[in-house]
Amino acid sequence: MLRYEPGKSIAHRLDPRSKLLVQGGFAAAAFAYTTPRGLVILTLLALCVLALSRTAPHRVLWEFRFVFPFLLAAPVLEGISLDGFVISDATSPALASYRVLLVLLVAGAYIRTTSVRDSRAAIQRSVPGRPGQFLGMGVGFVFRFLPVLRADIGRIRDGYRSRLGTERSVPVRMRILLIASLNRAFERADRFSLALRARCFSWNPTLPTLRFSRIDVPAIGFGLVLFLAAVYGFV
């Protein structure tokens, strides 16, 4: 499972605010440049980000494999017509889907090189007041809660297969999996809420100290260049 792993890569040593800036700039540029040439450049940049974080591309792709059907559905449905499959109609949705895939690769590099506490600290120090505390709290909950839910869904699927549930029709299987997953999610949420109250949850806990260093200067510059390129592309 893709999660934070301590390391000594360049991306690990960057301040989380710098990495958020790069990630936001890359996403903006990806939505501004959807031409084949632009996506080729963005692909090279995404591979560079993965290399700096020492993250294997296939590992990120495997973790986000559940979005592949949705990314493939758009160009397939758009290209289908009464005359057959029209490639020209499917080209634009295919490029848009590939753009989302590149953004997920960069996001995977961020997840692997940034701890939950650092992400929360970066958000709360970037967004002042209670809104920043609320966003930081939400990010912390998602990063900690989502892997648990994914593991629960995996166990539900394994148990269903062991009981020959695969012999049923696809709609029935989807309905049973959805209901069981929602029930488990609500149970987890109740226990999570109880655990927070038992531990005297604080809106403003002591967060780790964040400091920019010399290595952050190129990252900040790179993020700003991506944002400027995105603005230029939209204009």
Q: What's this entry about, in short?
A:
The chain has one domain (10-204, 214-234). It is an all-alpha fold.
Question: How would you summarize the topology of this molecule?
Answer:
Elements lengths: L9 H4 L2 H17 L3 H17 L4 H7 L4 H12 E2 L2 E2 L1 H27 L2 H11 L2 H34 L7 H29 L17 H19 L1
Antiparallel strand pairs: 1-2
Tell me the Rg in angstroms: 21 Å
What's the overall average pLDDT, rounded?
A: 82
Q: What's the number of extended β-strand segments?
A: 2
Structural class: mainly alpha
Low-confidence stretches: none
First and last CA, distance: 40 Å
Into how many domains do the coordinates divide? 1
**How would you spell out the order of helices and strands?**
HHHHHEEHHHHH
Give descriptors for this structure.
235 residues; mainly alpha; flat
Describe this structure in words.
This protein has 235 residues and is mainly α. The chain has one domain. Helix content is 75%, strand content 2%. The chain has 10 helices and 2 strands. Strands 1-2 form a two-stranded antiparallel sheet. A hairpin with a 2-residue loop joins strand 1 and strand 2. Helix 5 packs antiparallel against helix 6. The longest helix has 34 residues. The protein is flat. The two termini are 40 Å apart. The mean pLDDT is 82.
